[in-house]
Design goal:
The chain has helices at about 10-25, 35-45, 50-60, 65-85, 105, 110-130, 135-150, 155-165, 175-185, 185-195, 205-230, 235, 245, 250-255, 260-275, 285-295; strands spanning about 95, 100. By secondary structure, the chain is mainly alpha-helical.
């Protein structure tokens, strides 16, 4: 691994991701063009934190970037699908995402539904069909398993269902954290684990440590998101601020209050860093990413 800080390699990793997405996403002119235009639209922009988490974990474990490219592309496609569907009128009914109209506003609601469906299935196609990474069949199957579980009823979809059911309800802190472990945390945790399974077999202690890092980071990310929804601006966030409050959704600030929510986020970021102690200097990319996420304003 290079002695330079991970931040200096981020542009190269983002370029790898963009190249992989361009390979796998159908051309905007390919039949049916409207759907493919919408897929590319939905997959553009964003923070790309989940793919960066895959590359950072891979660095810590000495996994070659080419072995990580399919997982990075797949997790970003899965994330893009989740945003398209979350924004739909039947879900959160948002009209702004990443500083521009949401997919159903830019195209139409039916196209947005199909776009999410197509992005999700494309994520699995990438993992099954990639021929450049050197992953064996056992690894491919494990990556598909991890991503499928993170996206399903015991992960993102389940968390979204709980979120919709909880509108207007008062949740305990434990109930709120359980919801976000599924809705937000599952895909962040899966990003870490997919990088683990793309490399050589890892002993149980180190796998558990990285799993804990992913869990703590996922919850910290969501608390921070809730705080930014209260304190950020629409220009900063690229989406309407205060949406959760306007919909009477339970959030960390509404359950704990802003000061306590900030403390809880700080605790979880620190727990994520502490989980990496057994990796010594190899954890630098993951520490940098935790610091980067903690310092974000969007």
């Amino acid at each position: 691994m290079s002695a330079a800080p991970f931040s200096e390699r981020v542009p190269a990793y983002l370029a790898r991701l963009t190249a992989a997405l361009n390979v796998w996403l159908p051309a905007a002119t390919q039949y049916p063009p409207r759907l493919h235009q919408a897929m590319r639209y939905a997959a553009e922009g964003g923070k790309r934190l989940r793919p960066l988490l895959i590359y950072a974990t891979g660095e810590a474990l000495g996994v070659a970037p080419r072995a990580l490219d399919p997982a990075a592309a797949a997790v970003e496609l899965m994330h893009a699908y989740s945003l398209v569907h979350d924004d739909l009128p039947a879900m959160d009914n948002d009209d702004l995402r990443r500083g521009r109209p949401t997919c159903h506003k830019q195209f139409d609601e039916a196209t947005a539904i199909l776009t999410g469906d197509a992005l999700q299935t494309l994520a699995f196609l990438v993992l099954a069909r990639d021929s450049e990474s050197g992953l064996d069949l056992r690894q491919r199957l494990k990556l598909i398993e991890v991503l499928a579980e993170a996206a399903g009823s015991r992960g993102m979809a389940g968390g979204q269902a709980i979120d919709l059911e909880s509108t207007g309800q008062r949740l305990t802190l434990a109930e709120l954290e359980a919801m976000h472990i599924h809705k937000t945390g599952a895909l962040i945790r899966a990003s870490v684990l997919m990088a683990c399974y793309a490399g050589a077999p890892l002993d149980s202690a180190h796998l558990a440590a990285l799993d804990r890092y992913g869990k703590c980071l996922g919850l910290a990310f969501q608390i921070q998101d809730d705080i930014l929804d209260e304190e950020g601006t629409t220009d900063q966030l690229g989406k309407r601020r205060g949406q959760d409050r306007s919909r009477n959704k339970p959030t960390y600030p509404s359950v704990m209050g802003l000061p306590v929510a900030r403390i809880r986020a700080q605790e979880l970021f620190e727990q994520a860093r502490l989980a990496l102690q057994s990796f010594d200097g190899r954890s630098a990319p993951l520490i940098w990413l935790a610091d980067h996420i903690q310092g974000r304003n969007r």
